[in-house]
Design brief:
There is one protein chain. Helix content is 59%, strand content 8%. By secondary structure, it is α/β, with parallel strands linked by helices. α6 (113-128) crosses α11 (188-202).
């Protein structure tokens, strides 16, 4: 019933085509191999959700968006570590699901704002504790730079980031240059991976909400 509802939602979009559906991880893997899907929406709550995600990336690397009703940080971060290109909570508005699909299909990364906010809160906590050298090494970014990271990780372009932060697009570009330099990353995927790795490094406990 859930799959039918999601399929009907996607079929309302002129540029989407649903080429297959599956009730479990093994079946999903077979479908992807047979049909050559451009993108997979994967329910993380399947009994083999994480294993299916890992198998999809190992056997035939495919862009995967994880759908979940879990807000446990560790589970979401494990999904990203295993190759998910996007995370969407199931209560997300339909128009945002469509936006996420388009962004990920275009090669970008999409993190649900709630998941990304949790990561950024922990990174911010690390910076506030950076009165000593050790804390500063853990989180070299300023609060403003972390705002940029959060928006970029959600798939927003420079112009959109500028609009949301009420700054000039050139200022966003300047922030990104500084961020890339501080973190030693070269693109937006590596920037998102930094945030994920930082979260895992700091603690496996969920952030307080």
């Amino acid at each position: 019933m859930v799959r039918d509802g999601l399929k009907n939602l996607l079929l309302l979009e002129d540029d989407f085509e649903v080429v297959g559906e599956a009730g479990g991880g093994r079946e999903a893997l077979e479908q992807v191999q047979e049909l050559g899907a451009d993108l997979v929406l994967l329910d993380l709550q399947m009994i083999d959700g994480l294993e299916a995600l890992e198998a999809l990336q190992a056997n035939q690397p495919t862009r995967v968006i994880v759908l979940t009703d879990s807000e446990h940080d560790n589970e979401l971060m494990q999904a990203m570590k295993r190759g998910a290109s996007g995370i969407v909570l199931k209560h997300t508005a339909p128009e945002l699901i469509a936006r996420c699909i388009r962004k990920v299909h275009a090669g970008e990364i999409w993190l649900d704002s709630e998941a990304m906010a949790s990561v950024m809160r922990r990174l911010q906590g690390g910076e506030e504790a950076a009165s000593g050298a050790k804390g500063r090494e853990n989180t070299p970014l300023s609060a403003r730079e972390m705002e940029v990271v959060a928006l970029v990780a959600q798939g927003y372009k420079n112009r959109e980031v500028a609009e949301k932060m009420f700054i000039r697009e050139q200022t966003v570009k300047n922030h990104l240059v500084n961020i890339f330099d501080k973190l030693g990353v070269s693109d937006r995927r590596e920037l998102t991976d930094y945030a994920i790795d930082k979260e895992l490094h700091r603690s496996a406990e969920p952030a307080s909400r």
